[in-house]
Specification:
Layout lengths: L1 H4 L2 E5 L2 H12 L5 E4 L5 H9 L3 E4 L16 H4 L4 E4 L9 H11 L3 E4 L7 E2 L2 E2 L6 E5 L10 E5 L5 H11 L5 H19 L3 H10 L14 H8 L9 H4 L12 H12 L1 H16 L17 E4 L3 H10 L12 H4 L10 H10 E4 L4 H10 L17
Parallel strand pairs: 2-3, 2-4, 4-5, 5-8
Antiparallel strand pairs: 1-9, 6-7, 8-9, 10-11
Helix pairs in contact: 2-3
Length: 384
């Protein structure tokens, strides 16, 4: 990763832990962080755990990126940092955001969990901010681990010490479960027992989401906020979908992750090819710039639920949905977007699909009669 980015990198057990480290390092508690309202709720809770107030940004309805020109001037004057999302790998406008952050004297922090191979302005995503975080659970499929990349190499030692202070001790049982998980998942898929497996996990309390967003639990969240900035009071929210997010890794886990990372370039090529095919279809919304190796391609459909059901009948799962936007999901715990309509439209119509299955996905949607939909006009970018 150091070679790819030209920046010093620190391994972390998860992207979410890396982001918490970055927020605590560069943001004073009580500060305000501009972020996307179409984002994983786990990230929202990480921001709260760092003792910060989320401020929801206006978005470009084509790809869910931050619309810099639509952020009010009074908002810029009151921010402590900007956090990008690079949703599904579509880059946020990092050059423009970096310029505004520099003018305001605040750090730009890049969440590149979906964007390990994306670029913007001729540079890799993750090379514009004070720090950036990457996930190895996405393109590499390692289901664990990530990186915190920093602009100043001198910061690495203190960040490593802060990381080590937050790590849970190594557990042999967790390591064994991690090593066996791919074989168990392959068996479930081969026997077509996916639905039964999910039902059993819910029955045992191992699957925490019944809807797209996890339960907010507002009263408990208020109590946790009284203890911020601390990670432990927010553990029940931050750990969702990844209970080992702060576990010290063992050698076997690191070896498997390393093997996955070694094959990254071939994976990126496959994602790039599928992205190009999907973006050129009637359901795509190609944005400016080169084709990116998107982790998921957000197709734009009129009836997303019907499209998801059609794909499910072909055993094509749809994940990484972020609906409703965070200001509608958690009113009172965040400042709302000054222009929420674009985010609400995108969250309602975006159908994130795996580009490696592009031909099959397009054939399924067309056979099901899915109807494409175009983004509303009125954004600040050309062509919106």
């Amino acid at each position: 990763m150091r070679g790819r980015l030209g920046r010093e990198c620190l391994y972390v057990p998860s992207c979410r832990l890396g982001l918490y480290l970055a927020l605590r390092r560069w943001c004073e508690p009580g500060g305000r962080v501009l972020m996307s309202p179409v984002n994983d709720d786990v990230i929202f809770f990480v921001v709260l755990a760092a003792g910060l107030r989320p401020v929801q940004a206006p978005l470009d309805p084509r790809d869910g990126s931050i619309d810099v020109a639509a952020v009010p001037e009074e908002t810029w004057r009151d921010l402590s940092a900007v956090l990008t999302t690079n949703l599904y790998g579509n880059p946020d406008p990092a050059p423009e955001l970096r310029a505004r952050c520099d003018a305001s004297g605040i750090p730009l922090l890049e969440d590149a969990a979906h964007a390990i191979g994306s670029s913007v302005g001729g540079r890799p995503v993750g090379t514009y901010g004070k720090a950036s975080v990457f996930s190895l659970s996405k393109h590499t499929g390692a289901k664990t681990g990530g990186f915190l990349a920093v602009a100043d190499p001198a910061e690495r030692a203190e960040l490593a010490a802060a990381r080590d202070a937050l790590l849970d001790p190594y557990r042999a049982g967790a390591e064994l479960a991690y090593l066996l998980r791919p074989y168990a998942e392959a068996t479930v898929r081969g026997l077509r027992l996916v639905r039964a497996a999910h039902a059993m996990m819910r029955l045992l309390g191992m699957e925490e989401r019944e809807e797209i967003r996890m339960p907010l639990r507002g009263d408990e969240l208020k109590q946790a906020l009284a203890d911020a900035p601390r990670l432990t009071p927010f553990h029940s929210w931050v750990r969702v979908d990844m209970h080992d997010y702060r576990l010290r890794p063992g050698r076997a886990r690191l070896r498997r992750t390393g093997r996955r990372l070694a094959g990254l370039d071939a994976v990126l090529d496959a994602h790039r090819a599928g992205t190009e095919l999907l973006s050129q279809s009637e359901f795509g919304a190609p944005g400016p710039g080169p084709v990116q190796p998107l982790f998921r391609v957000p197709l734009l459909v009129a009836d997303r639920d019907a499209a998801i059901a059609a794909l499910a009948r072909r055993r094509i799962t749809t994940g990484y949905l972020y609906d409703p936007p965070l200001d509608a999901y958690a009113p009172g715990f965040t400042d709302p977007s000054p222009a929420p309509e674009a985010a609400a439209w995108f969250a309602r119509h975006a159908l994130p699909v795996d580009p490696r299955r592009a031909p099959e996905i397009l054939a399924t949607l067309r056979a099901a009669g899915a109807e494409p939909v175009r983004p509303p006009r009125g954004g600040s970018r050309p062509g919106v």
